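In the laboratory, one determines a bound structure by crystallizing the protein with its ligand and collecting diffraction data. In a computational setting the workflow is compressed into a single prediction: the sequence and the ligand go in, and a structural description comes out. We illustrate the idea with zinc ion.
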Amino acid sequence: MVHPSPAAKPETAAQETYKPGDKVARSGVYTVLHENHGMSYKATLLRGETFPSCKKCGMKVRFALFHTAVHTRDDENFKA
Ligand SMILES: [Zn+2]
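The predicted complex, in structure-token form:
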């Protein structure tokens, strides 16, 4: 796990992270958290997709939901 101490994370307990292979449950913008290279940045993932592994840190990359966004294909207002 990425959390070193359970006592140190009461503020971030609500922050769910996802790992490669997990199914994307909510479309939105996710913060990409690499293990030990590069910087974190934002990426858009759509519901139904699978979180990808990283070329460099592989399965150690994590994704944290930044904010949700409904894709128009999932929005009743845009269904033909
Ligand atoms: Zn990486």
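The first strand starts at residue 17 and ends at 18. Keep in mind that any predicted model is a hypothesis to be tested, not a measurement.
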